[in-house]
Amino acid sequence: VQLVESGGGSVQAGGSLRLTCTASAYSRSPLYMAWFRQSPEKEREEVAIISAEGTTLYGDSVKDRFTISQDYAKNMVYLQMNSLKPEDTAMYYCAAKDNYAGSLYDPTTYAYWGQGTQVTVSS
User: In whole numbers, what is the pLDDT of the chain averaged over residues?
Assistant: First the structure.
């Protein structure tokens, strides 16, 4: 599976961005797609997760502000980010999980990763 993120950039606090993850080169659809983020001083943390059936999960810090969605026909996963805060500044990564082992919130259980896209929110 190859994953490519796009849509990052710089925005002022309160603004919005939409990230896109395009997936390709897989023999079967992943069971879960997710967005994680990481800033220099922090460990990689879960942002949002979506199952193949469309069930969604969110990290506590982004609930009610971010929305994950997917378009199966286009092999794309989106992350709509609203009401952005400076603490949302991070490198955002798209990830794919093709098995049921381990926690959905543990990034080490995801086998496939994109290269990341930077999101910077200024105050």
Answer: 94
Other Cβ atoms closer than 10 A to 63: 10
Measured distance CA(22)–CA(15) in Å, rounded: 23
pLDDT tens per residue across span 78-93: 999 999 999 999 999 9
HSE of 38 in the Cβ direction (CA atoms, 13 Å)? 9
Read off the tokens for 114: 């994109």
pLDDT (0 to 100) of residue 92 = 98
Q: In this structure, are residues 7 and 119 in contact, taking their beta carbons and an 8 Å threshold?
A: no
Summarised one tens digit per residue, pLDDT across range 4-14 is 999 999 999 99
